[in-house]
Design a protein that fits this description.
162 residues, alpha+beta, Aminopeptidase, 4 helices, globular, acyltransferase, Bact_Acetyltransf, transferase, ribonucleoprotein, acyltransferase activity, transferring groups other than amino-acyl groups
Length: 162
């Protein structure tokens, strides 16, 4: 079977806010399905594009990439430098690849662009076994830290470090 061509990945700009919001929201729906109340999705439908526009207009130390295939956004990644006292100097804050794009190495390419092989950390929903396995293949390990974020519908998250 011939290899599939790679998705096009580039730095995101303010002009990508709507596309990033769509991928972010769809990625949540595909990943968390019935675990997050519909009210959370409904609220995010009304706020996520504006949040992305603001984040991209004033990114600070955060860098965001967008993956596109055939002109449509299919994935995103964001990473940021962290301050003193953090477990690593770099945090992967987001990595979402739409279900139809998974298995095409787009997530791996996004991860490599976002953090390379640098020491870093990320938070992942505790029982997202697919994501934990993906990150383990890239050298990340659970370090025992855990948190609950109201913004995530109170889904507990665990920290992975590399």
């Amino acid at each position: 079977m011939p290899a599939l061509p790679s998705a096009r990945i580039r730095p995101a700009s303010v002009l990508d806010a709507a596309a990033l919001a769509r991928v972010h929201q769809q990625g949540w729906r595909e990943t968390y399905r019935d675990r997050v109340p519909e009210t959370v999705y409904t609220e995010r439908d009304h706020t996520l594009e504006g949040q992305w526009a603001a984040r991209l207009a004033d990114p600070g130390d955060t860098h965001t990439w967008i993956a596109e295939r055939d002109g449509e956004a299919v994935g995103l990644a964001s990473a940021r430098a962290t301050g003193p006292g953090q477990v690593r100097p770099l945090e992967l804050t987001l990595l979402y690849v739409l279900a139809a794009e998974q298995g095409r190495r787009t997530g791996l390419h996004l991860l490599r662009l976002a953090v390379g092989d640098a020491p870093c950390f990320l938070w992942v929903v505790e029982d997202n076994d697919r994501a934990v396995a993906f990150y383990r293949r890239q050298g990340f390990e659970l370090d025992g830290a855990r948190r609950e974020q109201a913004a995530h519908g109170l889904l507990p998250e665990v920290r992975m470090v590399r």
